[in-house]
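We read letters as residues; the fold follows as C-alpha coordinates. A sample entry reads:
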Amino acid sequence: MRQRQWDRLLVKLIGIILINALIATIAFLIMGYSISMYYIQNETTPEPLTSNLAFLSVTFITIIIFVIGFSLMMRTTLRKITYLSDEIKRIANGDLDRTVDLKGQDELASLAKNVTQMSAQLKELFERERAHEEERNQLFSNLSHDLRTPLTSIRGYLQLLESERVMTDVERSHFNVLNEKTAQLERLLDQLMDVNRLYSSQVTLSKQRMNISLLTTQLVHEMGPLFEEAGYRVSVNVQPDLYVEADQDQLIRVFQNLMSNALKYAAPDGLIELTLVERDEHVLWRLCNETTPRTIASIDHLFDRTYRVDASRGETPGDGLGLSIARQIMILHDGTLTAYASGEDRICFEACFFIK
Protein backbone atom coordinates (compact mmCIF):
# COMPACT_ATOMS: atom_id res chain seq x y z
CA MET A 1 0.00 0.00 0.00
CA ARG A 2 2.74 2.44 1.00
CA GLN A 3 4.74 1.57 -2.11
CA ARG A 4 1.70 2.30 -4.28
CA GLN A 5 1.28 5.70 -2.64
CA TRP A 6 4.86 6.67 -3.33
CA ASP A 7 4.51 5.34 -6.89
CA ARG A 8 1.53 7.64 -7.41
CA LEU A 9 3.50 10.57 -6.04
CA LEU A 10 6.35 9.77 -8.40
CA VAL A 11 3.94 9.54 -11.37
CA LYS A 12 2.42 12.87 -10.35
CA LEU A 13 5.86 14.50 -10.20
CA ILE A 14 6.83 13.09 -13.61
CA GLY A 15 3.51 14.29 -15.07
CA ILE A 16 4.13 17.84 -13.81
CA ILE A 17 7.62 17.79 -15.29
CA LEU A 18 6.32 16.55 -18.67
CA ILE A 19 3.51 19.13 -18.79
CA ASN A 20 5.88 22.01 -18.08
CA ALA A 21 8.43 20.60 -20.51
CA LEU A 22 5.72 20.54 -23.18
CA ILE A 23 4.66 24.11 -22.38
CA ALA A 24 8.29 25.28 -22.47
CA THR A 25 8.87 23.47 -25.77
CA ILE A 26 5.80 25.09 -27.35
CA ALA A 27 6.96 28.49 -26.10
CA PHE A 28 10.43 27.81 -27.56
CA LEU A 29 8.95 26.88 -30.93
CA ILE A 30 6.64 29.89 -31.00
CA MET A 31 9.45 32.32 -30.18
CA GLY A 32 11.77 30.66 -32.70
CA TYR A 33 9.08 30.76 -35.39
CA SER A 34 8.34 34.43 -34.65
CA ILE A 35 12.01 35.41 -34.98
CA SER A 36 12.36 33.43 -38.20
CA MET A 37 9.24 35.06 -39.68
CA TYR A 38 10.59 38.49 -38.75
CA TYR A 39 13.74 37.98 -40.79
CA ILE A 40 11.83 36.37 -43.67
CA GLN A 41 9.37 39.25 -43.88
CA ASN A 42 12.20 41.80 -43.82
CA GLU A 43 14.21 39.68 -46.29
CA THR A 44 17.35 39.94 -44.19
CA THR A 45 19.87 37.43 -42.90
CA PRO A 46 20.96 37.77 -39.26
CA GLU A 47 24.62 37.93 -38.40
CA PRO A 48 26.05 34.87 -36.58
CA LEU A 49 26.48 36.81 -33.34
CA THR A 50 22.92 38.11 -33.48
CA SER A 51 21.62 34.62 -34.26
CA ASN A 52 23.48 33.10 -31.32
CA LEU A 53 22.27 35.79 -28.94
CA ALA A 54 18.70 35.26 -30.10
CA PHE A 55 19.01 31.50 -29.59
CA LEU A 56 20.44 31.94 -26.08
CA SER A 57 17.72 34.44 -25.18
CA VAL A 58 14.96 32.10 -26.35
CA THR A 59 16.54 29.20 -24.45
CA PHE A 60 16.84 31.28 -21.27
CA ILE A 61 13.20 32.43 -21.52
CA THR A 62 12.14 28.82 -22.09
CA ILE A 63 13.94 27.69 -18.94
CA ILE A 64 12.34 30.53 -16.96
CA ILE A 65 8.90 29.47 -18.23
CA PHE A 66 9.60 25.87 -17.20
CA VAL A 67 10.80 26.85 -13.71
CA ILE A 68 7.86 29.21 -13.11
CA GLY A 69 5.32 26.68 -14.31
CA PHE A 70 6.88 23.86 -12.28
CA SER A 71 6.99 26.04 -9.13
CA LEU A 72 3.36 27.09 -9.53
CA MET A 73 2.16 23.52 -10.02
CA MET A 74 4.33 22.18 -7.17
CA ARG A 75 3.69 25.07 -4.78
CA THR A 76 1.08 23.24 -2.72
CA THR A 77 3.13 20.05 -2.59
CA LEU A 78 6.30 21.94 -1.59
CA ARG A 79 4.42 23.70 1.19
CA LYS A 80 3.22 20.35 2.48
CA ILE A 81 6.73 18.91 2.35
CA THR A 82 8.13 21.94 4.22
CA TYR A 83 5.38 21.65 6.84
CA LEU A 84 6.08 17.92 7.26
CA SER A 85 9.81 18.57 7.60
CA ASP A 86 9.26 21.19 10.32
CA GLU A 87 6.84 18.98 12.26
CA ILE A 88 9.15 15.95 12.10
CA LYS A 89 12.02 18.12 13.36
CA ARG A 90 9.91 19.26 16.34
CA ILE A 91 8.98 15.65 17.12
CA ALA A 92 12.64 14.62 16.89
CA ASN A 93 13.47 17.36 19.43
CA GLY A 94 11.13 15.75 21.95
CA ASP A 95 7.74 17.37 21.33
CA LEU A 96 5.83 14.10 21.10
CA ASP A 97 2.43 15.77 21.55
CA ARG A 98 2.55 17.21 18.01
CA THR A 99 -0.31 16.34 15.69
CA VAL A 100 0.65 16.53 12.01
CA ASP A 101 -2.50 17.43 10.10
CA LEU A 102 -2.57 17.67 6.31
CA LYS A 103 -5.85 17.92 4.44
CA GLY A 104 -6.47 15.79 1.43
CA GLN A 105 -6.22 12.18 0.37
CA ASP A 106 -2.84 12.27 -1.31
CA GLU A 107 0.37 10.52 -0.34
CA LEU A 108 1.69 13.37 1.81
CA ALA A 109 -1.52 13.42 3.86
CA SER A 110 -1.10 9.69 4.42
CA LEU A 111 2.51 10.28 5.46
CA ALA A 112 1.36 12.96 7.93
CA LYS A 113 -1.06 10.48 9.53
CA ASN A 114 1.76 7.94 9.86
CA VAL A 115 4.03 10.53 11.47
CA THR A 116 1.31 11.43 13.99
CA GLN A 117 0.79 7.75 14.78
CA MET A 118 4.54 7.26 15.18
CA SER A 119 4.73 10.24 17.55
CA ALA A 120 1.91 8.82 19.70
CA GLN A 121 3.59 5.40 19.82
CA LEU A 122 6.94 6.94 20.79
CA LYS A 123 5.26 8.92 23.55
CA GLU A 124 3.62 5.76 24.86
CA LEU A 125 6.92 3.88 24.78
CA PHE A 126 8.76 6.70 26.60
CA GLU A 127 6.05 6.91 29.26
CA ARG A 128 6.14 3.16 29.71
CA GLU A 129 9.92 3.19 30.00
CA ARG A 130 9.74 6.06 32.49
CA ALA A 131 7.22 4.10 34.56
CA HIS A 132 9.49 1.03 34.48
CA GLU A 133 12.44 3.18 35.53
CA GLU A 134 10.47 4.57 38.46
CA GLU A 135 9.46 1.04 39.44
CA ARG A 136 13.08 -0.11 39.36
CA ASN A 137 14.18 2.85 41.44
CA GLN A 138 11.40 2.16 43.93
CA LEU A 139 12.44 -1.50 44.06
CA PHE A 140 16.04 -0.54 44.79
CA SER A 141 14.88 1.81 47.51
CA ASN A 142 12.56 -0.75 49.11
CA LEU A 143 15.19 -3.48 49.01
CA SER A 144 17.77 -1.21 50.57
CA HIS A 145 15.50 -0.22 53.42
CA ASP A 146 14.10 -3.72 53.98
CA LEU A 147 17.55 -5.32 54.11
CA ARG A 148 19.09 -2.62 56.27
CA THR A 149 17.22 -3.70 59.42
CA PRO A 150 18.24 -7.40 59.45
CA LEU A 151 21.80 -6.45 58.53
CA THR A 152 21.92 -4.06 61.46
CA SER A 153 20.75 -6.88 63.74
CA ILE A 154 23.39 -9.25 62.33
CA ARG A 155 26.08 -6.63 62.87
CA GLY A 156 24.93 -6.16 66.47
CA TYR A 157 24.97 -9.88 67.22
CA LEU A 158 28.44 -10.20 65.67
CA GLN A 159 29.76 -7.47 67.94
CA LEU A 160 28.05 -9.12 70.91
CA LEU A 161 29.53 -12.50 70.03
CA GLU A 162 33.02 -11.05 69.69
CA SER A 163 32.85 -9.28 73.05
CA GLU A 164 31.35 -12.11 75.15
CA ARG A 165 33.65 -15.02 74.39
CA VAL A 166 37.14 -16.01 73.37
CA MET A 167 37.00 -17.84 70.02
CA THR A 168 39.21 -20.64 68.83
CA ASP A 169 41.24 -20.23 65.66
CA VAL A 170 38.62 -22.07 63.61
CA GLU A 171 35.80 -20.02 65.11
CA ARG A 172 37.77 -16.84 64.56
CA SER A 173 38.27 -17.77 60.90
CA HIS A 174 34.54 -18.41 60.45
CA PHE A 175 33.73 -15.22 62.34
CA ASN A 176 36.01 -13.16 60.09
CA VAL A 177 34.36 -14.54 56.97
CA LEU A 178 30.90 -13.76 58.36
CA ASN A 179 32.01 -10.29 59.39
CA GLU A 180 33.54 -9.61 55.97
CA LYS A 181 30.43 -10.77 54.10
CA THR A 182 28.25 -8.63 56.33
CA ALA A 183 30.40 -5.58 55.57
CA GLN A 184 30.21 -6.43 51.87
CA LEU A 185 26.40 -6.50 52.02
CA GLU A 186 26.38 -3.17 53.83
CA ARG A 187 28.56 -1.64 51.11
CA LEU A 188 26.26 -3.06 48.45
CA LEU A 189 23.24 -1.53 50.16
CA ASP A 190 25.02 1.82 50.29
CA GLN A 191 25.71 1.53 46.57
CA LEU A 192 22.08 0.68 45.85
CA MET A 193 20.95 3.73 47.81
CA ASP A 194 23.40 5.90 45.88
CA VAL A 195 22.17 4.52 42.55
CA ASN A 196 18.58 5.23 43.54
CA ARG A 197 19.41 8.81 44.51
CA LEU A 198 21.47 9.47 41.38
CA TYR A 199 18.89 8.12 38.93
CA SER A 200 16.00 9.86 40.68
CA SER A 201 17.89 13.20 40.59
CA GLN A 202 17.86 13.46 44.38
CA VAL A 203 21.55 14.45 44.42
CA THR A 204 22.33 18.17 44.52
CA LEU A 205 25.70 18.92 43.01
CA SER A 206 27.93 21.56 44.56
CA LYS A 207 29.74 22.73 41.44
CA GLN A 208 32.72 25.01 41.51
CA ARG A 209 35.59 25.86 39.19
CA MET A 210 38.32 23.35 39.94
CA ASN A 211 41.71 22.31 38.62
CA ILE A 212 41.05 18.86 37.18
CA SER A 213 44.73 18.44 36.29
CA LEU A 214 45.77 18.78 39.93
CA LEU A 215 42.97 16.47 41.08
CA THR A 216 44.00 13.78 38.60
CA THR A 217 47.66 14.02 39.63
CA GLN A 218 46.71 13.63 43.30
CA LEU A 219 44.57 10.55 42.59
CA VAL A 220 47.38 8.94 40.58
CA HIS A 221 49.77 9.60 43.46
CA GLU A 222 47.33 8.04 45.96
CA MET A 223 46.52 4.95 43.89
CA GLY A 224 49.98 4.52 42.38
CA PRO A 225 51.20 2.08 45.06
CA LEU A 226 48.16 -0.14 44.46
CA PHE A 227 48.97 -0.39 40.75
CA GLU A 228 52.63 -1.08 41.47
CA GLU A 229 51.73 -3.78 44.00
CA ALA A 230 49.49 -5.44 41.40
CA GLY A 231 52.33 -5.38 38.86
CA TYR A 232 50.89 -2.79 36.47
CA ARG A 233 52.88 -0.19 34.55
CA VAL A 234 51.19 3.21 34.63
CA SER A 235 51.77 5.93 32.01
CA VAL A 236 50.41 9.39 32.89
CA ASN A 237 50.05 12.29 30.46
CA VAL A 238 48.23 15.17 32.17
CA GLN A 239 48.00 18.58 30.52
CA PRO A 240 48.54 21.14 33.29
CA ASP A 241 46.07 23.74 34.54
CA LEU A 242 42.85 22.48 33.00
CA TYR A 243 39.70 23.71 34.74
CA VAL A 244 36.09 22.48 34.75
CA GLU A 245 32.89 23.31 36.63
CA ALA A 246 32.24 20.25 38.78
CA ASP A 247 31.40 18.80 42.17
CA GLN A 248 34.83 17.74 43.40
CA ASP A 249 33.62 14.92 45.69
CA GLN A 250 31.46 13.39 42.96
CA LEU A 251 34.22 13.78 40.39
CA ILE A 252 36.69 12.01 42.66
CA ARG A 253 34.17 9.19 42.88
CA VAL A 254 34.01 8.91 39.08
CA PHE A 255 37.78 8.77 38.66
CA GLN A 256 38.26 6.37 41.57
CA ASN A 257 35.64 4.04 40.13
CA LEU A 258 37.36 4.04 36.73
CA MET A 259 40.82 3.51 38.21
CA SER A 260 39.56 0.78 40.55
CA ASN A 261 37.90 -0.87 37.56
CA ALA A 262 41.23 -0.91 35.73
CA LEU A 263 42.91 -2.28 38.85
CA LYS A 264 40.42 -5.18 38.93
CA TYR A 265 40.06 -6.05 35.27
CA ALA A 266 43.24 -4.97 33.45
CA ALA A 267 45.38 -7.74 31.97
CA PRO A 268 48.23 -8.87 34.27
CA ASP A 269 51.54 -6.99 33.83
CA GLY A 270 49.82 -4.71 31.32
CA LEU A 271 50.22 -1.01 30.61
CA ILE A 272 47.62 1.42 31.95
CA GLU A 273 47.57 4.81 30.24
CA LEU A 274 45.89 7.86 31.77
CA THR A 275 45.53 10.96 29.59
CA LEU A 276 44.03 14.36 30.34
CA VAL A 277 43.90 16.88 27.46
CA GLU A 278 41.85 19.80 26.17
CA ARG A 279 40.51 19.39 22.64
CA ASP A 280 37.91 21.35 20.66
CA GLU A 281 36.41 23.11 23.71
CA HIS A 282 36.24 19.82 25.61
CA VAL A 283 38.32 18.37 28.43
CA LEU A 284 38.94 14.64 27.89
CA TRP A 285 39.91 12.35 30.77
CA ARG A 286 40.87 8.96 29.29
CA LEU A 287 41.98 5.70 30.91
CA CYS A 288 43.10 2.81 28.67
CA ASN A 289 44.27 -0.67 29.59
CA GLU A 290 44.70 -4.11 28.10
CA THR A 291 41.86 -6.48 28.86
CA THR A 292 40.23 -9.74 27.80
CA PRO A 293 38.23 -10.43 24.61
CA ARG A 294 35.22 -11.13 26.87
CA THR A 295 35.34 -7.56 28.18
CA ILE A 296 35.69 -6.11 24.66
CA ALA A 297 32.63 -8.10 23.58
CA SER A 298 30.65 -6.74 26.56
CA ILE A 299 31.36 -3.03 26.00
CA ASP A 300 27.72 -2.24 25.21
CA HIS A 301 26.64 -3.56 28.63
CA LEU A 302 29.42 -2.31 30.90
CA PHE A 303 27.36 0.65 32.14
CA ASP A 304 24.25 -1.41 32.87
CA ARG A 305 23.42 -1.56 36.55
CA THR A 306 24.69 -4.71 38.35
CA TYR A 307 26.33 -5.99 35.13
CA ARG A 308 29.62 -7.84 35.57
CA VAL A 309 31.68 -9.45 32.84
CA ASP A 310 32.61 -12.47 35.00
CA ALA A 311 29.54 -12.48 37.22
CA SER A 312 29.11 -16.26 36.99
CA ARG A 313 32.65 -16.94 38.18
CA GLY A 314 32.71 -14.42 40.98
CA GLU A 315 36.50 -14.22 40.94
CA THR A 316 36.71 -10.45 40.81
CA PRO A 317 35.33 -8.44 43.71
CA GLY A 318 32.67 -5.88 42.96
CA ASP A 319 28.95 -5.35 42.66
CA GLY A 320 28.64 -4.15 39.06
CA LEU A 321 27.40 -0.69 40.10
CA GLY A 322 30.58 1.40 39.91
CA LEU A 323 30.52 2.17 36.19
CA SER A 324 26.78 2.83 36.21
CA ILE A 325 27.20 5.31 39.06
CA ALA A 326 30.16 6.97 37.32
CA ARG A 327 28.20 7.49 34.08
CA GLN A 328 25.19 8.91 35.91
CA ILE A 329 27.42 11.38 37.78
CA MET A 330 28.90 12.50 34.45
CA ILE A 331 25.39 12.97 33.03
CA LEU A 332 24.52 15.16 36.04
CA HIS A 333 27.61 17.22 35.14
CA ASP A 334 26.28 17.64 31.56
CA GLY A 335 29.17 15.48 30.38
CA THR A 336 29.55 11.99 28.95
CA LEU A 337 31.28 8.76 29.92
CA THR A 338 31.87 6.25 27.15
CA ALA A 339 33.80 3.03 26.62
CA TYR A 340 35.30 1.89 23.34
CA ALA A 341 37.75 -0.69 22.04
CA SER A 342 41.19 0.46 20.93
CA GLY A 343 42.46 -2.60 19.13
CA GLU A 344 41.58 -6.22 19.75
CA ASP A 345 42.58 -6.37 23.43
CA ARG A 346 42.52 -2.78 24.62
CA ILE A 347 39.65 -0.83 26.19
CA CYS A 348 39.39 2.90 26.90
CA PHE A 349 37.05 4.78 29.21
CA GLU A 350 36.65 8.44 28.30
CA ALA A 351 35.02 11.13 30.43
CA CYS A 352 34.21 14.25 28.43
CA PHE A 353 33.58 17.66 30.02
CA PHE A 354 32.15 20.57 28.04
CA ILE A 355 33.98 23.85 28.66
CA LYS A 356 31.46 26.63 29.20
